[in-house]
Amino acid sequence: MKDAPNPLEGQAPPPSAPPAPGDGTQTLSRREFLHLTGMAAAGAALSACVPSLAQPTPRRGEKVQLVYQDWQTEWFPSMAQEMLDQFHATHPNIRVFYIPDPDNLEEKMLADMQVGIAPDVFQGCCSWFPILAQQGYVLDLRPYVKADLDQETINDWDPAQYRSFFLRDGRQYALPKYHGALALYYNKDLFDQYRVDYPDGTWKHDDYLAAMKHLTDDRNGDDRTDLWGSMIDIAWERIQMHVNGWGGHFVDPHDPTKCRMGEPEALQAMEWIRARMWDDKVMATSLDVQNRGTRQAFVDGRLAMVEDGSWALKDILTGANFRIGITTFPAGPVRKVTLATTDGFGIYAGTRHPDAAWELLKFLISKDYGRAMARAHFLQPARASLVDEWVGFVRQQFPQKARDVNIAVFADGQLMGYSVTAEVFANMDAATRLASTAWQEIFTLGQAPVEKMKDVCRQIQEAQQGAG
Length: 468
Prior knowledge:
The two termini are 18 Å apart. The chain is an alpha/beta fold. The longest helix has 17 residues, at 428-444. The radius of gyration is 23 Å and the shape is globular. 38% of the residues lie in helices and 12% in strands. The strands form five sheets. Strands 2-1-3-13-4 form a five-stranded mixed sheet, with helices on both faces. The chain has a three-stranded antiparallel sheet with strand order 10-5-11. The chain has a two-stranded parallel sheet with strand order 6-9.
């Protein structure tokens, strides 16, 4: 395939970017900021072909301006700005302006890309990131990776997570941001109170269910359950992980247009979840906990266990007033799995400065940036070589609460090779919409049987026509 044409070629240079936050100037909206930086031509037709590395370079002394978009959480912007100061010191000809993710991120990112005003470098994850890549809005990183990254760096990442950033046609649209992994948190005080043995790495789903039954209770005697054994987020990756444990799949591993949600293994795993929520009532629904969310319901003492990730570690350690335990996720009937998140950094295909954007992306995947995120909010580093340092940061800040907690268990799937990542259809947009609507009826509202997924699977497969 020939090199993709630059849709921005011939445009005038962008105007001077607004001052960084904190300069005392008038605040601009995110969209106004992106318009002023002039990163792309509105409506430009973006090609999904491999970009050329031989891009025009700025004249000597001329500064390149980039916009980097990432989380808007309370702790992230200040950390990012501090780290960008380090980047600017070593890259004097590149000026990076950080902007936080907008509300309704998935919809707004797609809309901005469609009209050509997306940030140069951005973070993405989950089922929506590959949708942007499938539609040709994310730069193919293969030539840059081949030219600049050594095998030692690539081997430091979880192979499952690294592979997740490739489309089926070979395009590579991202590199790992951090390694969120799923495990089982448990409340040691409640386990002691109800005389239940603590979970460990030998647990299977039968052990998990038995403990949930012992730990579900009406504690105030009003004939209403107020303590549940566990809880799961009703989300693509969380449900898929159970399906993988049963030996099933959402997507055929060899054909991204073929749906396998309606096969026996997938249906059995989803039925196991539904039955715990609506038949046994030992696994809380979001309605049971007034939409508090998994980690908050656990911190509030309404759950004895919770299926949650390393990304929740700081919030749970901060909020919990009980002794915390963490262990690997219970094995399914067929295999042991755990979720590795697909949080990564990508480059907008319409950027005016792909080479400079790559320099920024290399900085974002560096050990220093990984350490900064691990220190600031205990984000599990994507690099396995940083796990011990990460555990040290946690223990240093919470010497009592984290003293007997097996924090490194989050890296077990990465180190032992049993991580799984979100399975991606060729037309992921349609698949997620159809599945989410069905899961709302099945799990959240308890109004439909899991057999509904057979019809949903057929609809998903029909939506794949022409998308392979």
